[in-house]
Write a structure and sequence with these properties.
Blueprint lengths: L1 E6 L4 H16 L5 E6 L14 H8 L4 H17 L15 H13 L1 H16 L8 H10 L4 H9 L4 H13 L7 E6 L2 E6 L4 H13 L9
Parallel strand pairs: 1-2
Antiparallel strand pairs: 1-3, 3-4
Helix pairs in contact: 1-9, 2-3, 4-5, 5-6, 6-7
Length: 221
Amino acid sequence: MKITYWSDLNCPYSYIGLKRLTDAVNELELNVDWMLKSFELEPLLPDKPTTSMLKRYANKYAITTQEAKKEIEEIDKIAKEDGLDINYIGTKLTSSRNAHRLIKFTQNNYPKLSQKLIFKIYEANFKNNEIIADIDVLVKIASSVGLNKTETKQILSGNSFDVEVSLDMEDARFNGLNSVPFYILTYNEEQLSIPGAFEKDDFKIALNDLISGEIKLKTFI
């Protein structure tokens, strides 16, 4: 089975959705080839934080800071129910471009390390509240999963894989995607598209139906 998915490393629901789908795959003991497609919800974000997550969230959704705090805490609660310890309010929101470039490099050259790297970047962003636009932070994360520090820094210091990230974004636009997460599950010649972060059990049902052929009788969109 192959799972292709568009996610933003600044999107908590992308993190939650990936955890749920990964848990579903593991519980079903499936052999899966994963492929992340880059997606930046806010491609113009700077490399350094300019305001707190609380203020940014409130401004983005035109709500009060009190309302924003309540919604952010609810996201933390949802994540915790899925086994993720996040501190969304402490997130230092910055560009995810460098992180996406690092993932493209890893998927192309060290594919067996890519999913572990992706989870580590999410953890750094949402749990440890590190700045994922920072090259030194990314080098540290890459090293923790087994990538070479010197090679990683060389890749990130230039423009390597910037075009590939842009092509993923163009691909998303061509397919009419304007939000993430979005998953495409492929098994033999059958394909299933799933928009949004399903619950783990719903992912399991979808995976089983795809494998058994029952998917032809259902729709998930």
